[in-house]
C-alpha cells in the first residue's frame, strides 16, 4: 500500500493541472449534489416541524357575511369522521388602512385579516415554533411581511380609518402553517381578543374560516360534499390540506430541484472529464501496462494500481463536498427556515446529503473500474506496440499560399483529422453553456408577466379584485362604470368564480371551481383544444382533467342549483392557482353564489401603468388593484429571490469549469502533440502561429458547443422545467429567453474567457524545440 501511495503522490506532482481540474469537477459535483439534498432535507424537516406544532386543518371553507351558528354546530355533531372543528373569526382590514414603518400596504396583493390565537389546532407560532401569545396593544406580524418590509420586533404597526387610529407594538414574527407562502393570497396578523373587538367597531368586516380535522383515511372531498350539500356558508375559497402541501412544496422545493438538476449536469461533466483523463493516461502507460501483464502481474492488481488515484480523489471530493454543502445548503435554505423553522426531523439534513455523496462516489469509482478493466482486455502485444483501436487520423494539405496565412486552414485541418479527441471537451462546453442558460431562462420565465398564463389567466397590464361583501354587486357596477368612462383603458374583461359539482374518476361527486368570463379578451395558450365558445363548453385545468379523467372531446356532467347539465370538454389549460384544479365555462351564477370578481385590463399605449394604478386606487378605494408584473413578483417573491441566487452561482460555476476544462485539455493536447509542435517550429511556424492554431481549434469547438447548448436549453430545458412544475398543474411550459443575454452577452463572455485561458495556457509552447525530439 505504501508503494501505491508513493506512486499516486508522484503522479499528482507530475500532472498537477489535470489532477486539480478533475478534483474541482468532482468537488463541485459533490457540493451541488449534497447541497441540493441538504436543502431538500431541511425543507422536509422544517415543514414537518411546523405542521407538528401548528396542527394545520385538513379542510378550510372561508365565508364572508352572517351564518347560522346552530346549523354549523349540528352539522359537526352529525359527522362522526370529524376529529375536531373550529370557527376562526378574521377581521379583514383594507390594506390602505394598515401602516407599517410609515408606509401603507395599499400596493400589497395580499388580503390581510386580524385574528386571535386559535384553540385546539391551527395555531400561529412564534420564531421558536411555540404557540404565539400577544397582550393588549401587541401584534404578531406574518413572516411574509417581516421579510418583505423588514419588520422586526419592537416596530410599530398602525391601523387608521379617518379619525380613529390604533397603534400596535410588534411583539413577535409569526409562522402560519396555512398562509405562510406568498402563493397564499391571505395573511393573518395576531392580536388580542380585546383589540380585535375594539378595531372591529371602527373598520374592517368579518370573515369566517370553518376549519376541520378529519379521521385517518377520510378524504377531504367527503367532508366538502357533505358541507356544501348541507347548505352551510360557502361564499369564499375552500382549501384542502393537499393544496396547502402543494403550495408549500412549490414555494420551497423548486429551488432544491433546480440545484439537484445542476448537480446532475456537473456529475455528467465530471464523468466525461474523468473518462477522458483515464483513457489519455492509460494510452501513455500502454507500454508499462503491457510489461506488467507480460511478467504475470494479475489484472486485478494492475487495476488497483491505476484506480487508487481516482479513489483517493473521490474520497477527498466527497469529504470536501459534504462539508462545503453545509453552508451552501444553509444559504439556500435560509428562506424556508425563516418561514417554517428548523424542524423536528433534523437528521434529514445530514443523512440525505451523505447518501447523495456516497452514491456519487460509488458511481464514479465503478465508472473508473469499468474503463480501466476494458482497457486491460487488450493483448500484451497490442499494449507494448501501442496499437489503438481507432482508425488512422487521416491527412490534410498544407496551405499553398505560405505558412503565414495558413493558421486557420491548419487548425481546421487538424480539427478534421482529430475530431474524435474533441468530443469530450465539446460535450463539456455544451453542458457548461446549458448550465448558464437553464437557470437564467427559468428565472426570466418566472419574472415575466407572461407567467400569468400559467396561473389560468391571459397576459394583461392590471388586475382588479372585488372580493365578497354584502355590496359585491354594487362594487362591481361601480368599477364597470369607471372603466367604461375612462378613455385611457384600452380593453378589459370581467371574470366571476363559483362552484359546480362533477364526478371524479372514482364516481364520487365533488365541487369544481369554475370561472365565467370573456375568455377571448385575454386568451390562454391551451395544452389541447380551445377556450369555451358557448354555454355548452367547459375547459378544464390540467390537474382537474387528470382528476376527473377527462380529455378534449369528452362529455362532462355538472350539477348547479340541483340541475344537471352535460357539457363538452373543449380545452385543457394550465393553472397553478387553487391547487391547480379549476375550470372555465359560461355558467350564469346566481349573485349569492359568486365569491368575487376579477377584472383584467390593458391601458392604452404610452400610459404609465404604475401611475394609472395609483389613480385607480384613489377612485376605487373598495377594490384591490395590482399591476400584473407586481402581482407575479409578490406571488412568487420567495422563489424569485432564491432563483436569482442560483442563477448567479450557476454562471460563476460554469465559467470556472470552462477555464478548468480548457486548461486541462490544452495540457493534455500539448503533451500529446509535443513532437508535432516541435516539427512545426522547425519548418517555419512561429510560436505565435502555433498558439493561434491551438486557440482556433478550441474556439471553433466552443462556438459550436454554445449553439448546441442554447438549443438544448430551449428544448430539454423546457422539459425539465415542466417536470418540476407538473405537480402544481403545469405540464408544458415555454421558457422565455432574454435574447441579448442568451444569444449575445453570455456567448461573448464564454468565448472571451476561453480566449484569455488559451493565451495563458499555451505559453509553454515557447519552450518546445526540435532538438528535444532528436535527443529523445
Automatic annotation (TrEMBL):
Residue spans making up a coiled coil are none
Q: Which InterPro entries match?
A: ABC3_permease_C, Membrane_comp_ABC_pdt
User: Cellular location of this protein?
Assistant: Cell membrane
- The name of this protein is FtsX-like permease family protein
TM helices/strands, residue ranges: 252-278, 310-330, 350-372, 422-440, 649-671, 698-728, 740-761
The membrane topology term of the UniProt record is: Multi-pass membrane protein
Domain ABC3 transporter permease C-terminal: start-end pairs: 260-372, 649-767
Q: Name the UniProt key words of this record, in alphabetical order.
A: Cell membrane, Membrane, Transmembrane, Transmembrane helix
Q: Which organism is it from?
A: Acetobacterium malicum
Amino acid at each position: 500500500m505504501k508503494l501505491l501511495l508513493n506512486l499516486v503522490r508522484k503522479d499528482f506532482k507530475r500532472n498537477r493541472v489535470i489532477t486539480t481540474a478533475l478534483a474541482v469537477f468532482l468537488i463541485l459535483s459533490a457540493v451541488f449534489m449534497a447541497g441540493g439534498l441538504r436543502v431538500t432535507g431541511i425543507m422536509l424537516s422544517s415543514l414537518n416541524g411546523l405542521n407538528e406544532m401548528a396542527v394545520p386543518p385538513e379542510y378550510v371553507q372561508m365565508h364572508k357575511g352572517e351564518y347560522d351558528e346552530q346549523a354549523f354546530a349540528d352539522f359537526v355533531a352529525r359527522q362522526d369522521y370529524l376529529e375536531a372543528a373550529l370557527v376562526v373569526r378574521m377581521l379583514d382590514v383594507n390594506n390602505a388602512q394598515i401602516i407599517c414603518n410609515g408606509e401603507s400596504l395599499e400596493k400589497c396583493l395580499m388580503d390581510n385579516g386580524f385574528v386571535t390565537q386559535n384553540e385546539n389546532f391551527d395555531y400561529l407560532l412564534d420564531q421558536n415554533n411555540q404557540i404565539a401569545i400577544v397582550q393588549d396593544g401587541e401584534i404578531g406580524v406574518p413572516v411574509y411581511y417581516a421579510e418583505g418590509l423588514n419588520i422586526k420586533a419592537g416596530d410599530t404597526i398602525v391601523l387608521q380609518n379617518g379619525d380613529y387610529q390604533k397603534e400596535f407594538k410588534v411583539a413577535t414574527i409569526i409562522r402560519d402553517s396555512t398562509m405562510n407562502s406568498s402563493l397564499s393570497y391571505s395573511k393573518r396578523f395576531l392580536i388580542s381578543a380585546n383589540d380585535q373587538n375594539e378595531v372591529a367597531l371602527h373598520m374592517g368586516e368579518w370573515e369566517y374560516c370553518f376549519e376541520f380535522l378529519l379521521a385517518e383515511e377520510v378524504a377531504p372531498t367527503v367532508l366538502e360534499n357533505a358541507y356544501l350539500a348541507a347548505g352551510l356558508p360557502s361564499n369564499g375559497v375552500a382549501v384542502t390540506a393537499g393544496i396547502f402541501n402543494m403550495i408549500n412544496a412549490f414555494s420551497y422545493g423548486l429551488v432544491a430541484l433546480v440545484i439537484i438538476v445542476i448537480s446532475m449536469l456537473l456529475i455528467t461533466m465530471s464523468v466525461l472529464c474523468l473518462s477522458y483523463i483515464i483513457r489519455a493516461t492509460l494510452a501513455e502507460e500502454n507500454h508499462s501496462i503491457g510489461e506488467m501483464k507480460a511478467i504475470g502481474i494479475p489484472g486485478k492488481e494492475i487495476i488497483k494500481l491505476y484506480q487508487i488515484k481516482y479513489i483517493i480523489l473521490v474520497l477527498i471530493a466527497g469529504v470536501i463536498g459534504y462539508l462545503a454543502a453545509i453552508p451552501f445548503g444553509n444559504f439556500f435554505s435560509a428562506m424556508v427556515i425563516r418561514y417554517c423553522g428548523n424542524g423536528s426531523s433534523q437528521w434529514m439534513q445530514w443523512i440525505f446529503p451523505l447518501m447523495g455523496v456516497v452514491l456519487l462516489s460509488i458511481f464514479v469509482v465503478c465508472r473508473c473500474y469499468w474503463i480501466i478493466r476494458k482497457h486491460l482486455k487488450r493483448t500484451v502485444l497490442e499494449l507494448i506496440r501501442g496499437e489503438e483501436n481507432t482508425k488512422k487520423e487521416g491527412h490534410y494539405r498544407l496551405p499553398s499560399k505560405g505558412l503565414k496565412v495558413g493558421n486557420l486552414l491548419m487548425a481546421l485541418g487538424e480539427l478534421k483529422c482529430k475530431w474524435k479527441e474533441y468530443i469530450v471537451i465539446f460535450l463539456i462546453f455544451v453542458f457548461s453553456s446549458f448550465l448558464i442558460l437553464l437557470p437564467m431562462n427559468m428565472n426570466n420565465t418566472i419574472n415575466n408577466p407572461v407567467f400569468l398564463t400559467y396561473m389560468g389567466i391571459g397576459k394583461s397590464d392590471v388586475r382588479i379584485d372585488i372580493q365578497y361583501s354584502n355590496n359585491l354587486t354594487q362594487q362591481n357596477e361601480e368599477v364597470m362604470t369607471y372603466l367604461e368612462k375612462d378613455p385611457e383603458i384600452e380593453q378589459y374583461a370581467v371574470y366571476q368564480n363559483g362552484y359546480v359539482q362533477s364526478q371524479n374518476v372514482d364516481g364520487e361527486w365533488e365541487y369544481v371551481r369554475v370561472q365565467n368570463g370573456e375568455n377571448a379578451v385575454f386568451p390562454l395558450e391551451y395544452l389541447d383544444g380551445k377556450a369555451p365558445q358557448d354555454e355548452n363548453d367547459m375547459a378544464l385545468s390540467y390537474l382537474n382533467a387528470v382528476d376527473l379523467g377527462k380529455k378534449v372531446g369528452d362529455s362532462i356532467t355538472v350539477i348547479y342549483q340541483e340541475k344537471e347539465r352535460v357539457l363538452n370538454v373543449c380545452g385543457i389549460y394550465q393553472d397553478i392557482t387553487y391547487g391547480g384544479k379549476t375550470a372555465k365555462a359560461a355558467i350564469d351564477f346566481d349573485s349569492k353564489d359568486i365569491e368575487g370578481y376579477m377584472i383584467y385590463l390593458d391601458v392604452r399605449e404610452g400610459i404609465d401603468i404604475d401611475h394609472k394604478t395609483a389613480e385607480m386606487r384613489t377612485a376605487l378605494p373598495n377594490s384591490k388593484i395590482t399591476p400584473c408584473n407586481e402581482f407575479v413578483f409578490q406571488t412568487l417573491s420567495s422563489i424569485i429571490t432564491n432563483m436569482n441566487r442560483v442563477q448567479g452561482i450557476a454562471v460563476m460555476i460554469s465559467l470556472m469549469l470552462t477555464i478548468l476544462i480548457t486548461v486541462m485539455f490544452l495540457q493534455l493536447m500539448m503533451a500529446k502533440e509535443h513532437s508535432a509542435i516541435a516539427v512545426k517550429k522547425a519548418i517555419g511556424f512561429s510560436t505565435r502561429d502555433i498558439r493561434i492554431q491551438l486557440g482556433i481549434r478550441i474556439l471553433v469547438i466552443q462556438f459550436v458547443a454554445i449553439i448546441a447548448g442554447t438549443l438544448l436549453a430551449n428544448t430539454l430545458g423546457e422539459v425539465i422545467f415542466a417536470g418540476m412544475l407538473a405537480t402544481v398543474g403545469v405540464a408544458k411550459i415555454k421558457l422565455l429567453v432574454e435574447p441579448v443575454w442568451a444569444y449575445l452577452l453570455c456567448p461573448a463572455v464564454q468565448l472571451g474567457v476561453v480566449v484569455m485561458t488559451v493565451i495563458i495556457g499555451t505559453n509553454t509552447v515557447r519552450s518546445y524545440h526540435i532538438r528535444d525530439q532528436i535527443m529523445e
